[in-house]
Design brief:
This protein is of the alpha/beta class. The protein has ten helices and 13 strands.
C-alpha cells in the first residue's frame, strides 16, 4: 500500500522530491520503494527526464488501478472507523429460561427502539450450554445466574434479586406476612430439574441450613412449576422477576423471615472477544434496567 501511495504521489506531482514531501518520507526511501514496485511488476513505471519524471505506458495503466485501489481502501478504513462508534450489526444473546421471558422483552424493545440497525439473535438454554457457546464464540453475550467459574469468560454482575416463597392461595401459611424456613420442613417442593441452575440453588439454600427439601415434582419449565403450585401440589422459591410478572390470583408470595435467598444475574462474554458498540450498549441497558427495581451490582 505504501508503494502504491508513493507511486500515485510521484505521478501526480511529476517529481520524486515533491512526492517525498507530500508523503512525509525521505526522497531516497521513496525512490527505493518505487524501484521495488517496478521490480515486482517487471515494468518501468517512470521515465526520468532530468528533474522531471513522466509515466510510461505501464505507469499510466497502473495509475488508474492504483487510484481506484487507494480510494477503495480509504472507504473501507472510513467504514471501519465509523463501525467502532455506530451501534449496528448482529448481536447474539444467550439467556437462561428463568430470565428470558421476564427481563428481555422490555429490554430488547427499548434497545431496538434506540438502535434499529441491530439484529438480535436469541438463544434460550441452560447455563452450561450457554457458557459453552460463549467459549466457542457462538454467542456474543450470555445472561446467566452466578456462580460462573471459567477463566476464559469475563463476568459482569448485573443485579441481585431475592427468591420468594410461592404457595397456593389457600395454603396454611398464606395468612402469614412472613414465613420461617423451619415452617417448610414438612412441605412438598416443586423444583426445576437439575439441569436448571435455579433448581439446584433452591435445594442448596435449604441444605446449607440443614434442611433437605422434600421434592414432590421437578419440571423443565418455570411456568409449569407455577401451575403446579397453583394446583396445590406444593410450594417453591421463585425469582422476584417471575413474581412481578405473575398476574394470577391463585398464588401468593411471602418473604422468608429468618433468611432471604437470592440469586445474582450476570452477563458473560469471552475474555478475548472484541466488545462491539452493540454489546457495550446492551450491557449498559441491562445494568440500568436491572438496577431500577432490584439491587444493582457495582
Amino acid at each position: 500500500m505504501h508503494q502504491l501511495r508513493y507511486f500515485v504521489a510521484v505521478a501526480e506531482t511529476g517529481s520524486f522530491s515533491r512526492a517525498a514531501e507530500r508523503c512525509h518520507v525521505s526522497q531516497p526511501s521513496l525512490s527505493q520503494q518505487i524501484m521495488k514496485l517496478e521490480s515486482r511488476l517487471g515494468q518501468r513505471l517512470f521515465d526520468r527526464l532530468g528533474r522531471r519524471v513522466v509515466l510510461t505506458d505501464a505507469g499510466r495503466l497502473l495509475l488508474d488501478h492504483a487510484t481506484a485501489i487507494l480510494a477503495e481502501v480509504e472507504q473501507v478504513e472510513r467504514q471501519m472507523r465509523d463501525a467502532t462508534h455506530t451501534v449496528q450489526g448482529k448481536l447474539a444473546i444467550g439467556v437462561i429460561p428463568t430470565v428470558a421471558p421476564y427481563l428481555l422483552p422490555s429490554a430488547i424493545e427499548l434497545f431496538l427502539r434506540r438502535y434499529p440497525e441491530v439484529e438480535i439473535l436469541l438463544q434460550e438454554d441452560v447455563t452450561h450450554q450457554l457458557l459453552a457457546a460463549a467459549v466457542a464464540g457462538e454467542i456474543d453475550l450470555a445472561i446467566v445466574a452466578l456462580p460462573v467459574a471459567d477463566a476464559r469468560l469475563r463476568v459482569e454482575p448485573l443485579f441481585t434479586e431475592p427468591l420468594w416463597l410461592a404457595m397456593p392461595r389457600g395454603h396454611r401459611l398464606a395468612r402469614r406476612k412472613r414465613v420461617r424456613l423451619e415452617d417448610l420442613r414438612a412441605e412438598r417442593f416443586i423444583l426445576l430439574s437439575e439441569m436448571h441452575c435455579l433448581g439446584e440453588q433452591v435445594a442448596s439454600f435449604c441444605r446449607q441450613r440443614e434442611f433437605e427439601p422434600k421434592v414432590a415434582c421437578r419440571s423443565a419449565q418455570l411456568p409449569t412449576v407455577l401451575s403446579l403450585i397453583a394446583a396445590g401440589q406444593g410450594i417453591s422459591l421463585i425469582p422476584e422477576m417471575a413474581k412481578e410478572g405473575d398476574r394470577s390470583k391463585r398464588r401468593v408470595y411471602r418473604a422468608l423471615a429468618d433468611s432471604t435467598p437470592a440469586r445474582t444475574i450476570a452477563v458473560v462474554r469471552h475474555r478475548l472477544r472484541h466488545q462491539t458498540p452493540a454489546m457495550r450498549q446492551f450491557i449498559q441497558l441491562l445494568k440500568k434496567k436491572g438496577g431500577e427495581t432490584r439491587h444493582p451490582q457495582p
